[in-house]
Design goal:
The chain has helices at 2-15, 34-47, 55-72, 78-105, 107-132, 159-180, 183-197, 202-218, 224-248, 250-268, 272-285, 295-300, 307-332, 341-358, 367-380, 389-392, and strands at 23-26, 29-32, 142-146, 149-154. By secondary structure, it is mainly α. The longest helix is centred in the first third of the chain and has 28 residues, at 78-105. The chain is globular, with a radius of gyration of 21 Å.
């Protein structure tokens, strides 16, 4: 009974992890309702004696946390910086740590929960988009409109965040397809392709191209001749979609592709490129110690538009060095147990895609960012001796 309840809480926590819209403010802190579910899940894991972590992983997080604590002394807004440090601790303790522990002992079950969650949200994207074409919004779900074209965000803050999150599933599915070439993975990849596409997020569309490019040209399981063939097929597939939409639904074409092709990154980025240049100029003036975590918004009234620049401008060059290791380690880590090697590498690839595309967003503190770190690190330390026969099957 306890395991079923734990599974249910984990499923709801993952399904709603991007629910920025379901939140309330307390003393300047935005508290999401889903964060209480993660606390419950962590307590269930703790009392079941299933919380584990390696010494190396713990040290890496401590270095990250220490960099933020030190920057508090030089912060331009100590209150906001203290709040960011609190959320760093929360994200690790109640998201990364329990997910890391769970993925070590129930890797297949966790993967199943994740895939079901992605599929549910993907279907909701399609339904919300279709209903939105008639100018109707689904109650309790957020939909933005541009040129009368719906841009589903579900419970995320905006469509770009939803698209970035759904790219995890697309990258995961693509990895498995190009490793095993089974039709079930191809269908997952195609479904997740359209899930991302129908968010109408330019960032998401660029993420699709990036994912396909990396997996096709760097995959060791595909011969050089087949890489060329796959590239041609994919280009023709995307071109066919583009031409069909352009001549059948010109307004949708403008939202999906026209903004970039006609205005370039500067015009289509919603001020992101300008924001990056602004952040770089501020980094130059606060190179060594930064402005303090969260203090950028206090000083300049808007957040940085790039996650790495946000980290650098917050803690300075020294703090950045110790902090970035925590975020890059999931890309560099290797699996220590071959049975779940493919599962581990699929989510490591997903993390690479996610982290790159995250740079078009702000906030390295996103809950699903820390969840994905936990998944990768947990799978990397998944040992046979720590798995029961039930969990291995």
């Amino acid at each position: 009974m306890n395991n079923k309840f734990m599974t249910l809480i984990l499923f709801l926590s993952i399904l709603l992890i991007g629910s920025d819209q379901y939140a309330f403010a307390v003393s300047g802190l935005s508290i999401r309702l889903v964060q209480f579910l993660w606390i419950i899940f962590t307590l269930l894991m703790f009392f079941s004696k299933k919380i584990t972590i390696s010494k190396k992983q713990f040290i890496l997080f401590l270095l990250f946390l220490l960099a933020h604590v030190v920057s508090l002394s030089f912060s331009k807004d100590a209150k906001r910086s203290l709040g960011i440090i609190f959320w760093c601790f929360y994200n690790f303790l109640f998201i990364t740590l329990p997910v890391m522990s769970y993925s070590r002992i129930n890797p297949r079950k966790l993967n199943k929960i994740l895939e079901i969650g992605f599929e549910i949200q993907g279907v909701m994207i399609i339904i919300t988009f279709i209903i939105g074409l008639f100018g109707v919004e689904v109650p309790f779900l957020y939909t933005n409109f541009y040129m009368k074209i719906p841009r589903p965000a579900l419970w995320f803050y905006e469509p770009t965040f939803l698209a970035t999150f759904m790219l995890i599933y697309f990258a995961h599915s693509c990895y498995f397809y190009f490793q095993e070439f089974k039709s079930k993975y191809l269908y997952k990849a195609l479904r997740s392709f359209f899930y991302v596409l129908f968010t109408t997020s330019l960032t998401g569309i660029l993420g699709l191209f990036f994912t396909i490019g990396v997996i096709v040209f760097f995959s060791k399981s595909i011969s050089r001749n087949k890489k060329v063939l796959y590239a041609i097929i994919i280009i023709l597939f995307i071109a066919a979609i583009g031409f069909f939409i352009k001549f059948r639904y010109p307004a949708l074409y403008t939202v999906l592709f026209g903004r970039l092709l006609e205005n370039g990154f500067q015009g289509a980025g919603g001020g992101r490129v300008t924001g990056m240049h602004q952040t770089i100029s501020i980094i130059k003036r606060n190179f060594w110690i930064g402005v303090g975590p969260g203090a950028y918004v206090t000083l300049y009234k808007y957040p940085p538009t790039n996650a790495i620049l946000q980290l650098f401008v917050s803690v300075g060059v020294f703090g950045f060095f110790f902090s970035i290791i925590w975020f890059l380690y999931p890309i560099m880590v290797r699996s220590k147990y071959n049975k779940y090697k493919d599962l581990f590498y699929s989510y490591r690839f997903s993390y690479l895609v996610f982290f790159v595309i995250l740079q078009a967003n702000t906030n390295y503190m996103r809950l699903y960012h820390w969840m994905l770190i936990g998944i990768v690190l947990g799978l990397s330390t998944c040992h046979k001796s720590e798995l029961s026969d039930e969990n291995c099957d």
